[in-house]
Structures are given as C-alpha cells and as structure tokens.
Design brief:
The structure is a homodimer of 346-residue chains. By secondary structure, the first copy, chain A, is α/β, with parallel strands linked by helices. The first copy, chain A, contains 11 helices and 16 strands.
Amino acid sequence: MKKRGYATITFERPPVIGAHAGIVGPKEGEGPLGKYFDQIYEDPMMGEKTWEQAESALQRKAVSAVLDKGGLCAGNVDYFFAGDLLGQSIASSFGLEGFCRPVFGLYGACATIGEALILSAICTASDMAQTAMAVTSSHFASAERQFRFPLEYGSQRPLSATWTVTGSGAFLVASGKAAGGNLPAASHARITAVTPGQIVDMGVRDSMNMGACMAPAACHTIETHFRETGTGPDDFDAIITGDLGYVGQDILIGLMQKKGFDLKQKHMDCGIEIFDRSTQDTHSGGSGCGCSAAVLSAFILPKLETGQWKRVLFVPTGALLSPVSFNEGKGVPGIAHGIKLEAPGA
Amino acid sequence: MKKRGYATITFERPPVIGAHAGIVGPKEGEGPLGKYFDQIYEDPMMGEKTWEQAESALQRKAVSAVLDKGGLCAGNVDYFFAGDLLGQSIASSFGLEGFCRPVFGLYGACATIGEALILSAICTASDMAQTAMAVTSSHFASAERQFRFPLEYGSQRPLSATWTVTGSGAFLVASGKAAGGNLPAASHARITAVTPGQIVDMGVRDSMNMGACMAPAACHTIETHFRETGTGPDDFDAIITGDLGYVGQDILIGLMQKKGFDLKQKHMDCGIEIFDRSTQDTHSGGSGCGCSAAVLSAFILPKLETGQWKRVLFVPTGALLSPVSFNEGKGVPGIAHGIKLEAPGA
C-alpha cells in the first residue's frame, strides 16, 4: 500500500527473505565480522584471470550458496535483480549469465542492494513473482581500477577515504505464503515497508570523501521514512546505513539532529562494522555494493531471525560517482534506499 | 498474473502509457522518422559543456515534455525508472536529479527501456505505484567516448557497426484506472504482458557487430513470449526489435525460422527505421538506449493509439559490452526484454 504522493510502500502481505548468503575476500574475513560470513575466500582472484572476473565469481558463489541453503535450483528463481559498481555492470552480467533466468540489471552505486531488495519485494508482495533473487557485489581491486589510481602506483589515501569491500550478498525474496524448496516462512525476516530514495546533490566534489557525499541522501531517506510512516528512532532496534563510514556517520547524525531526530544511540553503519579501524588501515571504513549486502546477510538478518532485534531500518547508501563525470568537474550526488526489516511474525 | 516457472506476466488490469515523448539530435531529425519526433535539437551539445551533460539534458527535456503533455508536475510521478549506456549511468543521475523523486537506476545496455517499462508496468499494475516514468537516453559522442575510439582519430567503422542514436524517450506509465492530470485512459496504449529476458551469451566477440551479439537474445525472448502466451507472429501487427540493424535482423529471422516461426513479414527494427542507410552512412543501423525509446514514442505508440495497429511485441535489445570486459577477452552477451503493447481498449 502506498499513499498518494508518498515514496514509502507498506506491504499488506510482507514478503520474506527466505535464504541468504554473505561471502567475502580475505581482508573482510580477518575483520570483526569474519566469523559470521558464509564463505571467506583466501584468494582475492577467486581462481580467475582478472579482478572483474573474480567479482563475477563472488556473485556466482553467493547465489549458489543461497540456492543450496534454500534447497532450490536456479529455475525456482523467477527474476534476478542485480548490480555492481563497474561500468556497464559487467560483474553482474558475467556472474549471472550461467543461471539462465531473467535478469534486471540495476545501478544505484553502493545502494544497489537496496534497489534490488525493494524491487524484489514489490514483485513478490504483489504476486507478480513468487521468488526474486537480489544480489550485488564489489571487489577492492576492480573498483580501484574503475574509479581511482592503478594499484601499482601505491597512491596514499586520505583519511576520509573508504576501502571497497571484496564481497557479495545474495537474498532470496519470496511472497509470504509459499517460497518453495525448504523455506518455512515462519523463521524468516520480513520486508514490511520500503522507501526508495531520490538523488540528493549537495555539490560535494571530493570523491575521496564519499561519506560526505552520501550522508545528505541517507538523511533524506530516513527522514522521509519516519515522516511517511509516523515512526522515529525509538521504533527501531537500529538504523543501519550502508557505507557512510566514520566521516559520513558524524555528518548524518548532525543532519538528523537538525531535523529533530536523535540517531546517536541507534545508528550503525555496515562500512564501520566490517573492518577494524585500528588494525586494518581502512581509514573511514568499508564501502561498495558488496559491503552492506554481505553485512546484511551475515550480521543483521541473523539478529532479526533469532528475535534479538525486532525491527531495523536498513538504508544502503550510494555515491553516484563516475570517473568521467568527476573528471568533467561534476559533483558526486548521493542516493539511499530505505528498507524496513522485521523479525519473523513480529 | 504469472504462471509458475514462466518469465511472462500477463496483466489482469493492464497499465497504460499515459503520455510520452521522443526527442533526438540533428542526424536523427534528418532521418526517415524526422517528422514524428516531438523535439529535434540542432545542437548535439544541447548547449552544455560536455557530451555527457548533453545526454543528461536529453533525458531532462524528454521527461519535461512528458510532464507538459500530461499536465503533470514531477511530484505526480511516483517513481522514475531510468538508465543509459554510460559507466555508472551518469546521464540518468545528472539528468534526473532535478526532479527530486525516487529513482531506480537501471542498466540493460540498449534494452534498458524494456527494463524500465516492465518495472513501471509491474509497479502500476499492482498498485504499488500510481504513476512511473520510464526514461532512457543515448548520445553518439558520449557512447563513442565510452566504448570506442576517440572521435578525433576518425577511425573507419566496419559495415556491421551501428550508429549510436542521439536521443531520449520518456513514458509515463499509469495504472489503468486513474492517471491524474489530463490523462484519459481510453486513448492510450496498454501494456498487456511482459517477458523479461535472460542473458544469452553465444560467445560472439565482435564489438563492432552488436547485431550478431544481440540476435540470439532477441530470439530467446520472442520464442519464450510466443510459447508462454500461446501466440505467434500472426497474432501481432509487428514484432519490433530495438537495434539489431540489418546484420542482426538477418540472423534473428534465420534463428526464428529454425524455431518454427516466420518473422519475415512482421519484423521491424527501430535501428533500421531511424536512419536512411543509403544517404546517412550509418551502416547496419542505429543503436543505443535512446534508439528504441525514441522510436517507440514517435512511431510505434501513435500507430497503436490511432488503432492503425492492434497489437505489437516490442523487444528492445542490448549488448552487454564494456570496454573493460571486452579488452580482457570476454565475449559480448545479449539481453532482450519483451513488452506486449495493445491499442486502447482493444
């Protein structure tokens, strides 16, 4: 149900996240969340010839893990919603072609898993699909090649920079009633509302400070969700952004304060959680389409599934940055998508 | 309604395309469809400083034209579904940020308008949205910079190459009952079924022959649609692909023949229609996200709206090509999305 003029959809029959997997590379495996991931690959090349192909392999492995967990084959997935950071989304195209199912390619920078989950939820909540697979990935080295300096330069990174996560998260979203395979709906987190975000451009031009670029978009989406659903920070166990990092977190909390909402006790950021700032040299935190996706699967959903948390607002954040637009002097607009996740049958 | 295991959704309450616009650059304006476009811009820079910003301006103009025609403001559009060919979809991000509405960024190469229309139709048919704007663009010069040689080289193009269309098409999709503004549902074409496509990789490695890369995907989607809906070429006034061009058309007709379907009398290709092969030096035809989108608005929908055609299968086609994957020796997979369009109230 969506009220006229609202961005938020509140689902009358909330779809569930039936099975999911978060898989990562070696650095993420050594981080504070290491023990929670489904798979940790010691070889960042994943046995492939290029970093881009390694990223495709991450998506393939994540989807395969979800299918295994759900006791499903690819033919049980109605539609794939997938994306990554690379130009023309090649990690997704080459990662998913072998599953031979319809694919909707998405691009929303590091907020792409939000787009994928929202569209999967819309399709399954409305019975336009029975199952949809939301999957995104990122890879430190393919992202550096795409956006920044050749790694061989050994360029120094400013403290506001984030470290692109090598990882992927995949989620089988299913209509509440029948998910097929061995997916009993009663034990799975539910997507009860979604607030798709708009592009927010505050004119920030520092591609090495993406937290600052994205914080205004996160603020806009969170405020919109609160306003349209009549809720506030107290209604959630946590408000979880994607990859604002330490710099962006400070900005978000300040911006929300001005809007009259105190996020300080409730805010969590996937990019902050995934690395240990003091030992891993990742500066402001982790980032990338794979960051919030892998953390959602490994860390957030289990807390809902076990009832430790009742309700969270998951807000993946994206910096709409390209080397071309940036070199042509354009700013870095942000986007953030809001997804309200609730414990099973809560 | 979607049968289990099918790709195709048949809408019980088909959404309508309430208002639409196709706008192009000077070369497209001089082509055979010149008189049908809403706006033709003589300056391919659109008064902007870069080609990429010019492409953003095309999207902005197309959306504004649709809003004007529909007597709507941006606030009447629930969600935007948008994409383009450029890395990180910058033409869309910078083109749409000013409308301040939720945006789902899409990437499906030149088939992106198919993705956008399908998702707009799903959202409005299910009342998850009342209105959705599907918009895509391409620009000859921004695409050459993204994918091929610097224009200044004056490189020779093989005869199998296509010419990227400078243009944009935008479509306001609305639920059948109430579109708002001055949009009487009775005079608008309806989206009665959709068949999202899967990635088809036949190992074609020639980025200068995208027709050959995409034809197998078009064949797969058209055959799937026929099989799942129990229809064939005789049930349609035309089967219209996006930008296979002359080379891809021959391949598609041959492939479909082997599947038992004779497309020869019914096939049309937007890339073939938009340029005059003999005078415009465009070789195999036009291509780009803007090609099928602008032709759909200017040439196809009017034939349905006036009842000249009763029913068409619109199948935008995309080559999932990136300079990175291509230079790393990967092939060029194709994707095609099928949309069944019918005359008002037919």
